From TrEMBL:
Domain of life the protein comes from: Bacteria
GO molecular function: GTP binding; GTPase activity; magnesium ion binding
Protein residues bound to GTP: 167-174, 192-196, 214-217, 284-287, 320-322
Pfam families for the chain: DUF1967, GTP1_OBG, MMR_HSR1
HAMAP family (UniProt xref): GTPase_Obg
Organism: Tetragenococcus muriaticus 3MR10-3
Binding sites annotated in the UniProt record for Mg(2+): S174, T194
Domain OCT: residue ranges: 360-438
Lineage, uppermost ranks: Bacteria, Bacillati, Bacillota, Bacilli, Lactobacillales
Keywords: Cytoplasm, GTP-binding, Hydrolase, Magnesium, Metal-binding, Nucleotide-binding
Name of the protein this chain belongs to: GTPase Obg
Family: Belongs to the TRAFAC class OBG-HflX-like GTPase superfamily. OBG GTPase family.
Subunit organization: Monomer.
Cofactor(s) in the UniProt record: Mg(2+)
Amino acid sequence: MSMFFDQTTIDVKAGNGGNGAVAFRREKYVPNGGPAGGDGGRGGDVIFVVDEGLQTLMDFRYNRHFKATPGENGMSKSMHGRGAQDLYVKVPQGTIVRDEETGALLGDLIENGQTLTVAKGGRGGRGNIHFASAKNSAPEISENGEPGDERRINLELRVLADVGLVGFPSVGKSTLLSIVSAAKPKIGAYHFTTLAPNLGMVSASNGANFVIADLPGLIEGASSGVGLGIQFLRHIERTRVLLHVVDMSGVEGRDPYEDYQAINQELASYDLRLLERPQIIVANKMDMPDASENLEQFKQNLAQEQTEEESGLPSIFPISGITKQGVDALVNATADLLESAPTFPIYEEETSGEDTVQYSYTTNEPDFTIERDPDATWVITGSNLEKQFEMTNFDHEESIRRFTRQLRKMGVDETLRKRGAKDGDLVRIKDFVFEFVE
């Protein structure tokens, strides 16, 4: 049996930019012709794209690393390297994307074909044609490409359905789904038959179409993590109308009205907004002996409670999954209710509603931090400084001099002095170790 796979964490790495080149024109009669090193190409982005053919996040179960290709290096004769192709990763409709480290919402992917850039490729490094000046007409200096973004990402799938079936296990939700749509859920008389949300397309006789999801049976305590419930409560969040299926036969010795209240309690304790959705009460198993009396009692209990709350009564549709009585009327009423039902964006306060989210390096962190290892080496870290380091080509003396000037400008030398660094002390940036010179 395939397990419904609806949450996973993956690693994405955009391509690094290509390195800039150091080269010179070698022309006859032109002594040491000017610089002619081209720029590196841009690294590829990692972009999610919605594919309506996917139903689960199963594809990410065994493949959790996605790496875009780097840009091409610059070449001589001022030729620039080619930019890399972006890497497109397909995700199902209804995927919510978050940054694992910060928990920030990056996107809620709903429309087929919608895209979201989750990691930006690095820009290409500049070749030595950019570093010529009046003082230095033949610079031996170039940049390495900028590193591409690297991040861990949480993916969570919330099924896209207009209507959700809720109710205790074994009240007949799967049977109802199989009657009203072409879906073929596994049906059994034991609790937790449904291990995954089953989706079905329903065509009402009044011409309307909608998607219905049979959400696995809730049990009391589901919102606090009991049973399978909490895993599936999140799938209800996208639905606009809830069909609350209640077993009116009472054959298992349960009280239909208590069941109804217990499920609503679960929905409320998971997220109060779930109770704002219009509900239709589906009184199922009306072909059973005591069902009619139980339904009368149910209506009385409901009416009593509602007078206290002063709000309209939810509609009740008596049906039988076995004889199919009342099912057509229920489907048409659901379609009518959908026309006026509001949509509930999951993260209205978080999403900006833009298709593509662009990322910038966080500006509020310091350029660098300095710590001291037990072996007395000074260790300098910081994303801004490390980026400069990675973009320095240490094969050329001039590039190294430029990097030391950048460090001085950032205030690294001064900070080291203040912290007590002496002439000859070792300083480490990533895996590069050099001596501190006063």
